[in-house]
Amino acid sequence: MKARQVIEVQRARASQDGAGVAIQRIAGMRHSGMDPVLMIDELRSEQRDDFAAGFPPHPHRGMQTLTYMKHGGIIHEDNQGNRGEIRGGGAQWMSAGRGIIHSEMPTQDSQGLHGFQLWFNLPAAEKMLAPRYRDIPAADLAVHDSKGRRAVAIAGDWALDDATISGPLVELVPQADMLDLTLAAGDRLMVDSGADQTLIAYVYDGSLADPRGSIAARHLAITGEGDAWELRAGEAGVGLLLLRGTPLREPVANYGPFVMNTPAEIEQALRDYQSGNFGT
């Protein structure tokens, strides 16, 4: 077994998206260490003004979105006739495929709003397939509580020392797996991966202990080669999103909400959208 090491740490940048929604963003459109993850946005606030205007109708092509809520909810509507709503946590997954126009409107609960939207790349062969959508209520997510740990599996199979849990979002696999993990102060957990897979962690609470220094909240840890990574919680414990996936190693051309392989494909996406033929 070859142990993975953290080789890079990225800090999330404060930004806005949609109609002025406050976010913390990790961008990785052409980052080989994040492939197939393209972007990670964290939405977290107790102030309704930070997110009330939401994300009005906008297009996508050539990628997948995964919205995962820990607190609060979100309402999705699109031009394919889909409407979904999750409250009190849960996930919404969408594969934009050849094109979709959708809106997302956040809602808060007694603990405010805390969630994430992640973009995952699609293989070139799947970028022009029909769009798809799925809601996953919080009650349908796989949860494992043990010895001060809490793991919520959204996608993929995860071995957690004394248990294995499997996330219900099979549509994201085999591109990527995702686990929401909380560890108590000083706890350690070995996470397995394929030697050629990407394995990264976005810290949203507490910190990860690492030989190169503590990795604090709102930072992304990117690991190097290996088939296992020992996670070690810091003095206040840690809450993180763990992402594992198979790199596509394909060219990435992007413009706003479109992610294709060549500039010519981006130009075609713009023409299709502007002509009113988007998503048909």
From TrEMBL:
Cofactor(s) in the UniProt record: Fe cation
Cofactor stoichiometry and binding remark: Binds 1 Fe cation per subunit.
Keywords: Iron, Metal-binding
Gene Ontology terms for molecular function: metal ion binding
Entry keyword annotation includes Metal-binding: yes
Binding-site residues, Fe cation: H58, H60, H102, E104
Highest taxon, organism lineage: Bacteria
Domain Pirin C-terminal residue range list: 178-279
Family annotation (InterPro entries): Pirin (IPR012093), Pirin_C_dom (IPR008778), Pirin_N_dom (IPR003829), RmlC-like_jellyroll (IPR014710), RmlC_Cupin_sf (IPR011051)
Domain Pirin N-terminal: 34-119
Family named by the database record: Belongs to the pirin family.
Name of the protein this chain belongs to: Pirin N-terminal domain-containing protein
Organism, scientific name: Chromatocurvus halotolerans
Lineage summary: Bacteria, Pseudomonadati, Pseudomonadota, Gammaproteobacteria, Cellvibrionales
